[in-house]
Write a structure and sequence with these properties.
A two-stranded antiparallel sheet has the order 1-2. It is mostly helical. The chain has one domain. The chain is built from twelve helices and two strands.
Length: 325
Amino acid sequence: MDHCLPNIRHMRNGTAGAATAMFTVGTLAGVSALVKDYPVYGGQAVRYLLAAVVLLAVTRALGLRFVRLTPREWLLLGGLALTGLAIFNVCVTESARASGPALVGTVLGAVPLALALAGGRPAPRLLVGATVVVAGATLAAGLGSGTLTGLLWALGAFVGEISFSLMALPLLPKLGAIRVSTYSTVLATPLLAAIGFAREGTGMLRVPTLAESLGFAYLAIVVTVGAFLLWYTALPKLGPGRAGLFAGLIPVGAIVTGLVLGLATPSGYDLLGAALVIAGILVGLSADRTGKRAHVTAADPVNRRSVPLDRARPRTEVGPSRAEP
């Protein structure tokens, strides 16, 4: 039985990382109150610029060199930055403006079910767990009245959230979590700056107040850098189906943050939704009680065979580098 212990530990680490990442993303709603008076798109550009600087510093400190990418990998990385980061943020912002945050929160609550289905033929318990998570996230987010415009923007955000995971999966064997996070954030920064200039003109930037500076620092370092690294480390360990279950923790994180910051007191529906999310995650994770890993595979370009995604290593680098943790 000793040989099963590394696999169990591997799954536990992935579970902890995915849960922390998605809960952290949920805190964005509460902390965003600190920067609500700052130009929206200019603020997003500032957030990702700060995150890109931090990630580049981490990459350099760890001695991780630039990795040459194939044209297909550049397309995936560009698609990840465009849809999973830039367009996702635009869609969330515009949907909230058109219909309030409840509608987009409800639509994004379906992400766990979509990722469970995208992972192949899901185990029945995984599918049931994802469905329960969706129900809980929907209840926690609240079913607002909404508008057609808000719904269309919310669906765009839904596609972006799915892209954030699925477009990264083929890149993780070669690049690892740190490089994927760094490269995508660096690429997304000028995209968000261009969107900000188009939407807000020269007024997209101004000197932030102390509270806004603290808010941007949290959003950049914790919600972007920390959550990205945790998510992209957990994703190959759990596979998209199991990892997707934890997306249901986003509204739970928002509820807890609102309570801690004194912004809102959770209602009975909020608490019931949070309980359903946790129950759904537990059901989904019980789909495989054998302690076996989620074997997400990727092509090994040297041996021309499939290997577990988390075991694949970068093959082509410019200059020496230390192994990424």
